[in-house]
Structures are given as C-alpha cells and as structure tokens.
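Sorry, explain these tokens?

___
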Amino acid sequence: MRTIARAVGATLLLAATLGGNTRAAERPDDPLAGATLEKIVLVARHGIRSPTRAPAELKAQTGRDWPAWPVPPGQLTAHGRAALAAMTDALGQRYRQFGLLPATGCPAPEAVAIWADAADDRTRQSGAIMADRLAPRCDLQSRALPAGHADPIFNAVGTGAAKRDETRATKALEQGVARDRDHRPPPVQAALTRLQALVAPDGCARPAGPCLTEPLTLSNPHGTPHLTGGPLLAATIAENMMLAYAQGMAPEQVAWGAPNAAALLATVLPAHGYAAALTRRQPAFAVPRGAVLSRAIIDLMADLPVTLPDHSAIGPNTRVILFAGHDTTLDTLAAIFGLDWTFTDQPDYTAPDTTLAFERWRLKDGSRVVRAVILHQGLEQLRAARRPDLAGSGAATLPIGTCGGATLCPAGTLRPIIIF
C-alpha cells in the first residue's frame, strides 16, 4: 500500500515548488508564473509537548526509566513554544513574500481567522502563539470552544457530527492485521527489532514482555474496533524518544545513552508512521473523523461562508485561516485528500509544528487552482528552536490524490476521497 510505504520511512523528498506571487515568478515555465495567491487554509500540529503518559506509567509499560519533563504529561514546553514561534515567523515571512499578508502594518479586519482545538491546553496555547507571531503587534486572536469541549472541526465522530461505519472500520483493521502478519514492511521490522534490543532485549521471552515485534491483534470491546500489540507500544516509544530529542534533552535522556540519537530516531520512527497508516490514515476512520474540517476547507477554497462551532462565521473576505490541531488532524486530511509526504531532515512526517497548507491561486488567465503544500522544521531545527527555510527545503508541493494526482487542482474540483 502506497501510504504505508511512505509512512514507514521512504526517503523520497517531494520537490519543493514555491511558486509565484503577485509578481511574475523567476522561472518562465513555472505554472504559477504571474499568478496571485488569494487565500490559504493552514492546518498545524501543536508545538513540542511532553509524553501524554507520566514517566512512572511509561516505566510500567516498558520496564525502562523515562526522563522527567518540566511540564505535566501532554503539555506544551517552553522550548516547544519557542520552536513554534520560530515556525510561525517563517510562515508569516512566506505569506508576506507572496503578498497575502501585508509587508508592513497589520492585516485588514477579518482578514485572518485562527481556530484551535479546545480539547487540550497544547492546542489552545499553540493557537495563541501562532496568532501572536503570524502578524506581530497586530492583536490577532486565536479562538476555541471552552477548554475541554469536544470540537467537531477536529473530531466529527467524537461530537456526533458524523458517524463511523464500525463494520467498515473493523474490516479495514482486519486487513491491516493480515498485512502485518504476512507482509510487515522491512523498515518497520527493522524499527521494531532495534527498539526491542534497546528497551527489552529479552522481552519476547518473558510473559510480562514487552514484546514489540509480536503480531498485531484486533479487539472489539463494546463494538468499537481497535488494534493492540507490541507494534503499537513501539510507536509510542519511538514518538516519545523523538519528543525528548526535539526538546533538547541529553543523549542519556533520549535513548538511555544509545549513541547518535538522531540516526537512531531515523531507524525507529517508521514504527510510529506504521501505526498511523494502519489506523488513523485508514479512510474508514479518517473520512468520518475529518468530515467537518474537510468540508470547511473545500468551502473556504470556494469562498463559501463557514460556520465555526461557536456559531461565528468565516466569510469570503477572510484570506488566511489557520486551524491549530494535532498530528491526527494532519493524518486525517492526508487520507481524505490523498496526500502523502516524507522529509529527508525529519523522520517524523507529522512532527510538532508541521503545517499543511491549502493555497488558492488565481492564474494569469483568471482561472483558479488549489495547491497543497507541506511546511515543516527539520529535526535539528526543532531541537534548536530555529526558523526553517520555507522558501526552500522546508516547503514541498504535494500531488493531490483526489484530484488525479495533480499539484494544481482546478478550484471547484477539490473533493474528499470516496469510500465504498
């Protein structure tokens, strides 16, 4: 499966095509030469957070000691705030260069709308940081539902705004279990083997485990299907190691003293991508979960008004719309619109601060197209809280699978994937 193959660490870097702006592009063969960027929808993962489980709980799962963090589980760190601020500075610079944000002064009233998931502090705080840095000293505001409220923008199933077909979801997971049993991708097996040797060399020989290389299994408590097994725990371990490295922790805190932590992460993070590909990137899960957000993106690209969960509206004059969400949000949209990407400088394709952009351009002939662009910080840029180059290696244009693989999708034809 193509999505899984990309998610487990293929090294292909999609070409970064930064396109034209309000002036003619430098390359005359550029399809966006002379085009004007009219509107963007940005969907961003929050900044660097601590693991969502406390060190004691992680030790109970893995048998290894885990580092203490300066914040409670699942919270944004000070370093994470600084890294996200740097990322947002780069986003602001990119879209000022394209003429979408003013080169000086502040955007017009109602030109920018920022909406954050209310479910977690980290998303609300990330929205506030991005509002502060996207157009400095302009008093932009990030809005959200009251803290802790479920938001249909980010999870339509969890709020009842959409319903998941549990039979279809179960079948998708059953197929994933069968593929894992018969054709586990080599990069994933290598990741699991490396993590097993690092965390619990004899774990598969002990009843208490953990055995990270064991086959996946499907359980269905209360009619809700989900996967279990060592590869799922391995995915969590790999992501938590990445977060510790991005936070700037010392090698003994990142991977219990294993040498060359960055290279180690490149080896083990395919386990994290694999788990996402088998679960939240499955259309049976992604389409209902992202039903509200994907519809909003399509409507915004068509200049149709979108009503937010607080009953306020984004009108046709709003040119910059930003949703502050999670890695799950990025995976969901990737599945819905047939998007796929990897990075050469970042082994986690949905790492903190990664931002998916839907850009609407007006071409010289007056026609309009939508372009999908993935924007990110490299692993070392995250660790140093450094601004990425979004005019170069930090930006990549994506083929849109639901638009026949085109990189410029005629406005009005952007569609979600159809599941049968």
User: Anything to note?
Assistant: The mean pLDDT is 92. The first strand starts at residue 36 and ends at 45. The chain has 14 helices and twelve strands. The longest helix spans residues 78-97.
